[in-house]
Amino acid sequence: MRLAYSISAYKLPGQFRWLMDAIWHPDDVYAVHVDAKTPPEVLAAFEAAAAGRPNVRFIAREPVVWMGQGLVNAELRAIGELLRMAPDFGHLIALSGQDYPLKPRHEIAAALASTPDLNYVRLDPLRDLPFHVRRRPYLFSFEHGGRLVKTPLPRPIPRGLKIAWKGSWWRVLSRDFCAWLTDAPETKAYWRFLKNVQAPDELFFQNLLMASPFRDRVVPQGRHFVLWPGDSGSPLTLGTAHEAAMLASGQWYARKFDATVDADILARLAARIGAPAPRRKAA
């Protein structure tokens, strides 16, 4: 099975090299988005990390604002690019530059080949979440000056547009769903509405998928191991102390890692899946 990857990154190009060493395969295709706010010299280091791999493309850059629309814009661009590069890919796997696989490629590809029509997307019913999360789609937000501005202004959801689900940005999508969304009017409708909502990246693919002909082909959990400390807005940085939990989870990938905090865990995971040993300089 041919796999497609969309990878979003903004820092640690050396660690991105480690990730590419672990997931790269000549049959697969890769679309990489580096935040437009990333300095040119860091972008150049990302590009150097992918040198000699003709199936890796860097897509047009989008400024990514926390809880803004940038990730969604970049991902739609990546999906279009990957479909042009390899119209026959089986699944698209969304990763960040600070992710790392917990299983070797052949195991992941075999699992996906056995369920070729399924989409792995975390789905949390919005109605079951705290009020401050449930109300996000009903309040107007906008990006200004490199940040998201949240307002108390009410914003009714358009008739026929159902916003009922929330979940993680990290997902695995079937090729057929990716092809459908590139031309579907539902994609534009959700994009137009969610661009002025807080954290559209946690709503866009969940609600689009459940409004699509693929709603019955969903596994309502992603394939990432992530730890969230309490009500924090950022996941825990994983290290060797979390290795046993990661491996016991059965998940395919984990995030997030920071080699400047704990490089040993990446070396241990690389050895486990048979990937090249990470080089120690990851900045």
Distance between the termini: 33 Å
Which class in CATH terms? Alpha Beta
Give the helix level as a range of percent: 25-40%
Largest sheet: 5 strands, mixed
Main-sheet strand order equals: 3-2-1-4-11
Unreliable sequence segments: none
What name does the CATH topology carry? Spore Coat Polysaccharide Biosynthesis Protein SpsA, Chain A
Q: Please, what is the average pLDDT? A: 96
Order of helices and strands: EHEHEHEEHEEHEEEEHHHEEHEH
CATH architecture: Alpha-Beta Complex
Provide the domain count.
Answer: 1
Q: Which of globular, elongated, flat, extended, rod-shaped describes the shape?
A: globular
The structure class reads alpha/beta
Number of helices: 10
Strand content: 15-25%
Radius of gyration, in Å, reads 18 Å
Structure summary, number of beta strands: 14
Description:
The chain has ten helices and 14 strands. It is of the alpha/beta class. The strands form five sheets. Strands 3-2-1-4-11 form a five-stranded mixed beta sheet, sandwiched between helices. Strand 13, helix 9 and strand 14 form a beta-alpha-beta unit. The longest helix is centred in the N-terminal third of the chain and has 16 residues. The two termini are 33 Å apart.
